[in-house]
Please model this.
Amino acid sequence: MHSLRSHKLRPGTVVLVLLALAQLMVILDISAVNVALPDLAADLDIGGGDLGWTITSYSLVFGSLLLLGGRAADLLGRRRVFLTGLGVFTVASLASALATSEAVFFAARAGQGLGAAMLSPAALSIITTTFQGPDRARALGVWGAVGGAGAAIGVLLGGTLTELVDWRAIFLINLPIGIGVAVAATKVVRPDVAPPQWRGLDLRGAVVATASLAALVYALSQAADAGWTSAQTLGLGLAGLAGLSAFAALELHTPKPLLNVSRLGERGVGGGFVMMLAASAVLFGSFLLTSIYLQEVLGTGALETGLAFLPMAVIIGLGAHLGGHLVGHAGLRIAMAAAFALTAAGMLLLAGVDGDGGYVSDVLPGMLVAGLGLGIALVSVALSVLTGAADDEPGMLSGLNTTGHEIGGSLGVAVLVTIATGAIGTDRSASGVAALAGGLGDAFLVSGVIAAVAAVVALFVLPPAASFLPKLRVAPRVAIH
Model:
């Protein structure tokens, strides 16, 4: 009898698989679209100046609504918000696939961002409340692997579907997955017992936070084109930062705040958020830089570019698996410092790319070393921010964690693309390609510096093992009163 039971999947494992699948859809639709941009733009007649909105319309709504989505999961019910977000995301995916004009497509992409802003923090908060102790570390390891490896898989999937089927297949594939996950989730995810607490939702804070984050994300996403010193970038950026300062002041005097700002003063939460900004900046930025190098310098096609990222997807997954074990034994400081040191080493290897390089010699070694470090970093960050969350905080802290992921990613892409392309303008001659390779090398070098600084900062700002590990090894939930 015991042997039969040992071969059955535990309910928690099924829940984790479903939530990871849902999160994978969210991640895939960020990176897969990058590879499909030329075909998509030609089909929908999107001009060069508007092409960035295929990404921005999604990331702007997603990034600005995450704090609200996370807090809504705590107050309205985690399963309710997850299923609602999944439904919105799936329907918006269908609308994206059926779009016949750029306006409809951009609106549908914004709808995907809305669904993702509810789905993602709710799913992470369900994981945090379903698993305890070492099981939570393993579950967050899977989550971290999806967050990092999913971006690489997205490039592969985007290239494959675009080249073999059509760019619309990138969105259509979400339909069977979304419907399947929704049906299964109603059976295995624990129902919300308490009724929705609409009156506890801090709508005033939500408006201020959403507007401020939207201004910041937009300023960062458009900075490479508008210029860092332009009135648009400086004006919106400063307005966003001022709005976030006002939001923090408001939240300190709100009975049920959207974000408990005092938690940012704790080393695990505040320090983990800073580490997430750095990890995401390097992750998103290096993915885009590598894609540009493969396609613009080495001349690889969409499918070949996608396949080139497969080793990185595998190594990030391995890193996330190792990260959970490393944090559990050595604590956050050592794990995070080691993760960023590996990432810095990988970026320095990639900084050697040139116009006459090749994938195996110039890209693969750095990709593997950095991927291992980023995998460890992503799971370490999640453990840092979410360990010790009170019963009414998992959604709030999950929203904070994912906000750091989006803001850091937007910042990394904006800064690194500006460095990579600033010196060459529109020159695509042989000398221009060589200059682009040099610019990409400089951008990879800056990525390495960011990672190296983060490795040092981790040793000082994160909690020591003596205070963190007892929280990580918390007793199972059934023993908590």
